[in-house]
Amino acid sequence: MIKKLLEKSIPLNKTSKKDLFDLLYNMHYSLLLQIVQQYVPTNEDAEEVLQDVFIKIWNNIDQIDVNKNITGYLFRITRNTCLDFLRSKRHALALETNSLQQKNLLNFHALTNNTASTIIENELIDLINENIKLLPEKCRLVFIKSRFEGKKHKEISSELDISTKTIENHITKAIKHLRKSLKDYLPFL
């Protein structure tokens, strides 16, 4: 079913919309929550912001082009939703002297600088791609099929004629490599 969603020529019906939404939710929820928690003062607020993010995704599910950079799209929605939240709290933040709230105000200003955000996002994407290229060929291929193409282990197994356990080992190796390589850039990994 998901493979059909990835074909641009098939219009999204109610069932496929839910499948696409579920796929996006399951694949990106944890990472998006960690990103939101970098900008929002409390876990409750972070959960609320992330709920708003997924509501926006659901409301715009028809406009999602699965052939484009969905991760970048999700990051932009998340960033903009954080901005909306911080804007709504800006007045209260200006009145408070609490250091956590001052940090949030600084994060708000950093997020509103679209040029800097775009540069940082592009640098990070380039750095991730460079580190993926450093992986051994088979490991890189398995990781790309799993994480970027969204394929299940069984699909990859049949395509590459390797066991699912080997696939799990390659993915684990790739994630460890990326965590080690990107620890200074993505402290939440």
Word description of this protein:
The chain is mainly alpha-helical. Helices cover 77% and strands 0% of the residues. It contains nine helices and no strands. The chain has helices spanning 2-5, 14-39, 43-59, 70-95, 99-112, 114-133, 137-148, 153-160, 164-182. The longest helix has 26 residues, at 14-39. The chain is globular, with a radius of gyration of 19 Å. The protein starts with a helix and ends in a 7-residue tail after the last helix. The model is unreliable at 1-11 (pLDDT under 50).
Question: CA-to-CA gap between the ends?
Answer: 31 Å
Per DSSP E runs of 2 or more residues, the count of β-strands stands at 0
Largest sheet: none
Helix count, DSSP H or I runs of 4 or more residues: 9
- Tell me which oligomeric state these chains represent: single chain
Give me the Rg, rounded: 19 Å
Provide the succession of SSEs. Answer: HHHHHHHHH
Mean pLDDT: 79
> What is the helix fraction of residues, given as a range?
over 70%
Which class best fits the helix and strand makeup? mainly alpha
Low-confidence stretches are 1-11
* Residue share in β-strands: under 5%
